[in-house]
Amino acid sequence: xxxxxxxxxxxxxxxxxxxxxxxxxxxxxxxxxxxxxxxxxxxxxxxxxxxxxxxxxxxxxxxxxxxxxxxxxxxxxxxxxxxxxxxxxxxxxxxxxxxxxxxxxxxxxxxxxxxxxxxxxxxxxxxxxxxxxxxxxxxxxxxxxxxxxxxxxxxxxxxxxxxxxxxxxxxxxxxxxxxxxxxxxxxxxxxxxxxxxxxxxxxxxxxxxxxxxxxxxxxxxxxxxxxxxxxxxxxxxxxxxxxxxxxxxxxxxxxxxxxxxxxxxxxxxxxxxxxxxxxxxxxxxxxxxxxxxxxxxxxxxxxxxxxxxxxxxxxxxxxxxxxxxxxxxxxxxxxxxxxxxxxxxxxxxxxxxxxxxxxxxxxx
Length: 364
Prior knowledge:
The protein folds into 2 domains: 2-98; 109-363, Penicillin V Acylase, Chain A (4-Layer Sandwich). 33% of the residues lie in helices and 23% in strands. The protein has helices at residues 10-20, 25-41, 46-62, 64-77, 81-93, 95-98, 191-201, 205-214, 278-292, 299-306, and strands at 2-8, 109-113, 124-131, 139-146, 152-157, 166-169, 174-179, 221-226, 232-237, 242-246, 251-254, 327-335, 346-351, 359-363. The strands form 2 sheets. An 8-stranded mixed sheet has the order 1-4-5-6-7-8-9-10, with helices on one face. A hairpin with a 7-residue loop joins β13 and β14. α1 (10-20) runs parallel beside α4 (64-77) and α2 packs across α5. The longest helix is centred in the N-terminal third of the chain and has 17 residues, at 25-41.
């Protein structure tokens, strides 16, 4: 696992990212080629290219800092800016093709608990990151100190901008995403931009929710949030609509489908028949385990739960299989209010399958 440190303005942070990830450049180029090849197999049409163009124009208007970060990364990696920009965007916008034409399997499992639900009363937020195994060597832990805003530590991918997975800032606001294949997608800010701005600019779940409601969103994903006070929420991201799921009995679960009335009909289950409905089964598995452990939820419990192997529909630690090439790349256990031995926001990170790999400890 690689750990890099970034500081300064967003161009400088991007350039430092590129320089420190330079040894991974061949793997980044390979990932770009694989993603572009996948898009070609999905048969991009004129509306798809128009959507990419409209999204770039929106970024130029609404998020110059993100574009500057990508420009810095491109120069540090010696990759064309337009290539790196398109790579990040088609990873998200591909859903408009997938929902029409091709099946695809990808998913992450996240949950949070706080107050009476946890053993020490402090909040915890946990994520299993699932993706293609080719992305494992590209996985990074980034220590970021922006020129303006809160310091934060995040899990991301080499060659990808913003916060591509999850993170926590110095005042204890934590956020993690999950992919939801959706028909409510349009020109807007992708969640790697949303999560970066949340961590840099906000100190509470409620402040972050106000921000998410106020900006133009691309759609496609869910964000689960927790802060040092124990406030928890899931924000379901649509382009034209959004949903808010609050904690029930101080626990909250989020996988790869929409729950809110405004967005649930936009969810498209693109998994092949043997795996149809796995997002709902994983959600139910985690919810049941959290309810059974209510009042005793802690780091040790989180490690055991996220390493759990069940059937093809409800396993949380997921391994590649003949009908599914994706697997669990990492587990992150965020402690926004610290824990017994550390009063600062911190997290444990497992690089690889949580049933096999060890955890490392990071403090903001």
